[in-house]
Amino acid sequence: MRADVLVVGGGLGGVAAALAAARSGRSVILTEEFDWLGGQLTSQAVPPDEHSWIEQFGATASYRALRNGIRDFYRRHYPLTERSRGWTDLNPGAGWVSRLCHEPRVAVAVIEQMLAPYRGSGRLTVLQPYRPVAAETDGDRVVGVTVAHRDRDTRIDIVAPYVLDATETGELLPLTGTEYVTGFEAQSETGEPSAPAQAQPLNMQAVSVCFALDHVDGDHTIDRPANYEFWRDYKPDFWGDRLLSWRSPHPRTLEIVERSFTPNPDDDPLAVNADQRLDPGDGNLWTFRRIAARRNFTEGAYASDITLVNWPMIDYFEGPVIDVPNASWHLSQARDLSYSVLYWMQTEAPRPDGGTGFPGLRLRGDVTGSADGLAQAPYIRESRRIRAEYTVVEQDLSLAVRGAHGAVDYPDSIGVGMYRIDLHPSTGGDNYIDVGSCPFEIPLGALIPQRVENLLPAGKNIGTTHVTNGSYRLHPVEWNVGEVAGLLADFCLDRGASPRAVRNDPRLLTDFQDRCTAAGVELRWPEIAGY
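The line above is the sequence of FAD-dependent oxidoreductase; the predicted structure tokens follow.
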């Protein structure tokens, strides 16, 4: 198969890249190995982590269209109460992690709607479920990529002048020989205050296998997981208790705190103020990442709230899942940990009334679209990252370093983002690393590999470090990166110029930034303070 642009990976970055290139008139092939497009928002079941100003600014126009489309979908198809229907910034789940917590399947529907015109016209071809298995290169260029069907022995060779890696782990980087880095860089290389003295390439953030729950009458206890005893008794040195407990380190202070767990509180959804500046929102884990608040819907429509479990105790940091021979084993262990957390909650978890266990907790695999009840895909926070023309480092955006100056103002900015440097416990034994950040920009140089000419990152695989990945890995930034990668491929095809030339030629750079602005990509922040 042939196309102008090949996008490998159908997460948020991949979808945004495919949309941008197709809207520009290019023929596009988009591949994805899981059943749903949307990545962390859908198949990984992670409600969007966003900054405090997302309703006003700080996102691309197409990302805003996705968010508005999700709200409109609820208003058109769900039995909302009149009060909730009139809520301008409708938060269907009334979760505290985001102003837009929702069921993954709704995001899938909206993404499919956004792609539908280009699929119908034949400009966009989506190959699902396919994953990359090989690549052909010629010097500093990628000639083509081979993808294999997940469930049967079918392979397709795809040729395109521009190849975008939007996979969750930067899978095309080793396949194409593109230079990349993993894990923790040395302080001598990056100068970062939070970096170690020596590089630690296998020290990566925890992965999580999320799942959805409700709480209804009856006993819905799952079978006892095979390794339950191990996880029940597991006590990391820095955790302050067993991993399977309501106690864990506070990400920002590392103080051992105890969170509450109260299913189906009779709270007012419209009273939830999901602002990470004021409150991380994880005090009651049930409402933290709730994706359906039953009080938003007409009486009896939902027997229970639905909450999404992406909580501290499901973080798996026993070993990395990138560039190790036993990656699949670690991923299976991460799934076993998630089942064990659920079984612990159903049978042994302390209740506010002094009893133990919540047998009414019911696994909602129908909500995550999976036969085994868990999310279709693991949430992998940290990808392989290209060795880029410019690497974003901690001192570019750290609030402690930059202070009132704000994040570095990049002359080649192609987007904006905001999130604290939020590193989960790691495979190297690190506790949380959480650093306040300034609202930051995305430099084009972070999307340009040092050597390869026609491969572009379109997700979490851009030129960040282990530390700054903690800020650049979230939903709106991944979408922005992917969208700009798609726009850049089109621009380069139109001008007959390489991505490297676009960054380093002032005239081309200005023209490309104008192209981004015209597409609704914000390049600068207004005057606001970090947190």
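Note on the example: The chain has a mean pLDDT of 97. The first strand starts at residue 5 and ends at 8.
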